[in-house]
């Protein structure tokens, strides 16, 4: 079983020393590093670490937030490690997926994250339905109001082109063309 470390800081002003020292003290024989925002998908150090790991190895990190961009990403990475029979050890959270208790704890975290996502979706859906029931419609307000559409039709009837009418009303010609086409039967 080889212990392989991964350390990441978000900006060049931050130092990796604390993480690297802790990973060395934990017995990591090789440490991969990144200086990149956790939101970035292209983290060469992480990609190298994942490619380097072999069955039976353990990826050691300082903290969960150093590894995953989000809880979903973290769960995906750990799932991939499990499929490859590679463990994960977080020094700060004291979670080690090579032990039954560590796997249980990690999966509880994952279950809670999924529960939270489901609640957010449920609340959002309920909020949209409630707003719709009160007559509110989501999305952007139309650029071409009924008043602007009537003025555009008057300009066009006086001989202006759609482009000229749009310029006078300070709206895009494409939006005006679309409004004229979609509301021509309603007017």
TrEMBL record:
Membrane-spanning residues: none
Keyword DNA-binding in record: yes
Keyword presence, DNA-binding: yes
Coiled-coil intervals: none
Gene3D superfamilies in the record: Homeodomain-like (1.10.10.60), Resolvase, N-terminal catalytic domain (3.40.50.1390)
Pfam families: Resolvase
Record keywords, A-Z: DNA integration, DNA recombination, DNA-binding
Record-linked CDD domains: SR_ResInv
Active site feature: 10
Domain Resolvase/invertase-type recombinase catalytic span(s) in chain numbering: 2-135
Highest taxon in the source lineage: Bacteria
PANTHER family per the UniProt record, alphabetical: DNA-INVERTASE FROM LAMBDOID PROPHAGE, SERINE RECOMBINASE PINE-RELATED
Family: Belongs to the site-specific recombinase resolvase family.
Record protein name field: Invertase
Organism the protein comes from: Tsuneonella deserti
């Amino acid at each position: 079983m080889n212990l392989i470390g991964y350390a990441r800081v978000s900006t060049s002003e931050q130092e990796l020393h604390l993480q690297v020292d802790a990973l060395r003290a934990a017995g990591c024989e090789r440490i991969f590093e990144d200086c990149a925002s956790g939101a970035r998908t292209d983290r060469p150090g992480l990609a190298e670490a994942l490619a380097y790991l072999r069955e039976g190895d353990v990826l050691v990190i300082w903290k969960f937030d150093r590894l995953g961009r989000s809880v979903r990403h973290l769960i995906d990475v750990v799932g991939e490690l499990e499929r490859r029979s590679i463990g994960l050890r977080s020094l700060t959270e004291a979670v080690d997926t090579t032990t039954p208790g560590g796997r249980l704890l990690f999966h509880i975290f994952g279950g809670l994250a999924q529960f939270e996502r489901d609640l957010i979706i449920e609340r959002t859906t309920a909020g949209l339905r409630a707003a719709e029931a009160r007559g509110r419609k989501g999305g952007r307000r139309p650029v071409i109001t009924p008043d602007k559409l009537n003025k555009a039709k008057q300009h066009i009837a006086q001989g202006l082109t759609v482009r000229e009418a749009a310029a006078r009303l300070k709206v895009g010609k494409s939006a005006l063309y679309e409004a004229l086409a979609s509301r021509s039967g309603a007017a």
